[in-house]
């Protein structure tokens, strides 16, 4: 079945980026001149996703406004003859069909899926976190979708992390000799970690996993974890594949240090400002 829909989790509060996120959703913070969430959406659209379901909460209206037409701004740009900016502004609202759902339920990264489950009934879909970026030459979601179309199995995105950071992530154990997931341990100690492969905010989920998630008890930290449902799926004989990024990398933006690193990585590759950014960073270091 063709993958046409994506659920994007954007209901977090961004507390590690306060006070910047006090009145602005963390997903709207800019990576140079595009908000984080727009980069996520563009990645999904490049993969052929048509319906993007953003699971929000009460303070995410700026995010919804971003993917709507701003007629006052359109008129102002038209009057000023700023055609390039006019085109850039208008096309944002037309990237996809946007659906907004308020998150309800326990805290945890499995809750957005359940909040939007009725909209993706019986269809495989992409699930992603609205503050995780994957910088790659070809949309990483497109890479995942193409793999899914070949083997028809759900997919978890993974990337190797330093050993001293495994206790921050869900860590994947692979079956010997292939990319099938045997187990996932949520935030293990360094001693318990079965590998250094961390799962991150990109996955393709099927209805069977959603049904398991509906019956999954709260886990670590009294939260609802998608990895707990996946573990049950795998233990019941389901096959879940791991997928690394081809020609790129996962970049998280959830804390000040990684947010700044991500901005620099995008800025350095810009044709208009990249060389100046490189020169400036060398000057700072010098």
Write the layout of secondary structure elements.
Elements lengths: L4 E5 L20 E2 L2 E2 H11 L4 E6 L4 H6 L4 H9 L3 H11 L3 E6 L8 H5 L9 E5 L2 E5 L3 H12 L3 E6 L9 E5 L6 E6 L10 E9 L1 H8 L11 H10 L5 E3 L4 E5 L3 H13 L5 H12 L1
Parallel strand pairs: 1-4, 1-6, 4-5, 8-12
Antiparallel strand pairs: 2-3, 6-11, 7-13, 8-11, 9-10
Provide a compact summary of the structure.
The chain is 34% helix and 23% strand.
Q: What are the key terms here?
A:
single chain, alpha/beta, Spore Coat Polysaccharide Biosynthesis Protein SpsA, Chain A, 2 domains, 7-stranded mixed beta sheet, two-stranded antiparallel ribbon, 34% helix
Account of the 3D structure:
The structure is a single chain. With 286 residues, this protein is an alpha/beta fold. The chain has 2 domains: 250 residues, Spore Coat Polysaccharide Biosynthesis Protein SpsA, Chain A; 32 residues. Helix content is 34%, strand content 23%. It catalyses: alpha-D-glucose 1-phosphate + UTP + H(+) = UDP-alpha-D-glucose + diphosphate. This is UTP--glucose-1-phosphate uridylyltransferase. Belongs to the UDPGP type 2 family.
């Amino acid at each position: 079945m063709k993958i046409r829909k994506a659920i994007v989790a954007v209901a977090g509060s961004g507390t590690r980026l306060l006070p910047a996120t006090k009145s602005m959703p963390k997903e709207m913070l800019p990576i140079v001149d595009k908000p984080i969430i727009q980069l996520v959406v563009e990645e999904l659209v490049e993969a052929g996703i048509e319906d993007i379901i953003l699971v929000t909460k009460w303070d995410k209206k700026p995010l919804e406004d971003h993917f709507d037409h701003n007629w006052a701004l359109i008129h102002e740009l038209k009057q000023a003859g700023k055609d390039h900016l006019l085109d850039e502004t208008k096309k944002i609202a037309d990237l996809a069909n946007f659906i907004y759902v308020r998150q309800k339920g326990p805290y945890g990264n499995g809750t957005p899926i359940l909040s939007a489950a009725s909209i993706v009934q019986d269809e495989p879909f992409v699930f992603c976190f609205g503050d995780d970026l994957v910088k790659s030459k070809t949309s990483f979601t497109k890479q995942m979708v193409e793999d899914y179309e070949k083997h028809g199995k759900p997919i978890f995105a993974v990337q190797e992390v330093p050993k001293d950071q495994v206790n921050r992530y869900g860590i994947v154990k692979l079956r010997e000799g292939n990319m099938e997931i045997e187990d996932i341990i949520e935030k293990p100690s360094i001693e318990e970690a079965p590998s250094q492969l961390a799962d991150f905010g990109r996955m393709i989920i099927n209805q069977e996993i959603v049904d398991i998630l509906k019956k999954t008890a709260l886990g670590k930290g009294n939260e609802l974890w998608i990895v707990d449902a996946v573990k049950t799926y795998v233990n019941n004989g389901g096959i879940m594949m791991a997928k690394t990024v081809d020609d790129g990398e996962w970049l998280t933006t959830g804390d000040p240090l990684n947010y700044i690193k991500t901005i620099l990585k995008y800025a350095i590759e810009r044709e208009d400002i990249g060389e100046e950014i490189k020169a400036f960073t060398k000057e700072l270091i010098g």
